[in-house]
Amino acid sequence: MRVFFDIQHLYYVPQYLPVKEELENRGVECTFVLYTQQLLNNVLKEYVEKHQLKNIWVQDKSMAQLVYKEQKPDWIIYGNACEDLSEVHVHSKTALMQHGIGPKSCYYDVSNSPIMHRFVEGQHRLKRLQKLFPNKSFIDTGYAKLDPILNGTCDDIDLNKINLDPNKQTILYAPTFYPSSIECLPKNFPALFDKYNIIIKPHFFSLIKKSYQSQQRLLVHWAKYENTYVSNVNEVSILPYMKIASLMISDASSTLFEFTALNKPAIWCDFYKLRWSYRGIFSFRFKRRLDDDLKYFGKVAARTTNIKELVEQTSLHIATPNIKEMERKEMTEFLTGKVDGKSSERIANFIINGDH
What we know:
alpha/beta; Rossmann fold
């Protein structure tokens, strides 16, 4: 059996690797189809070599379709919507593993595509998707990306090697690119948390896109603080940082759901730098971009609306991490599904046997 993984963006890969390893352990041949990206080609090449991933390079979606029609793999796993699969489906089955579990409306919209099956995280998501798309096939498997942490196979981070103090607790700040809290934080942001290590794991787009140069300037400035480490584009997976962190700060990023699924405290920055086209009379665009699931952030994390609250809530939740433990556990089952380290097994079972 052959399974192809469609990698439109490098940051999709951590979601796929645990599934790839589970499939290969059962004798399935796995191939990663990589899209050339002007600013990231060297990073992509280095990454696939490091992880020894069998790979095929394509220029765009149409070239990927040609590869699938010629190669005829048994399965193609997508991380985002894909249109016009009628010719692909002659020879291959397709499944969607969404690359995040966040509150953006695209989480649900991508199922409005001809992909045959979708692996879903939890009963809440499953029921909503089934109601929206009653003729589609959804399988509740949980979120495979977290399996390495839960199974103890995730890489370790040596704080000394990134010039941080191993005697301090570590805060992980993981903002998304848009709408983001980055520009709403002060230039001396790291100094406000000088009792802790701060690891900043920005979204790839924050690091490489010209439209986010204001974010890049702040990240470069923050990296100068001795208690702060800002990850670079070569560091693809957030998992090693999630493993070592005592607390996460985030905004509209799905990593907040991921981190609290590990039963660790998180702070939600419910304040964002919005483009003028998302403000005032155009605020409906902001509401449309973020799904109603955003309200669950306040269940799993402490909501803050300004920097003063952020500092206060961070200190409180690091000192007493069990404050929202009941809510985290309840919402994790609701939004992330089973957190038992076996999501990859369930996905592999379905791919191989048609049985989850």
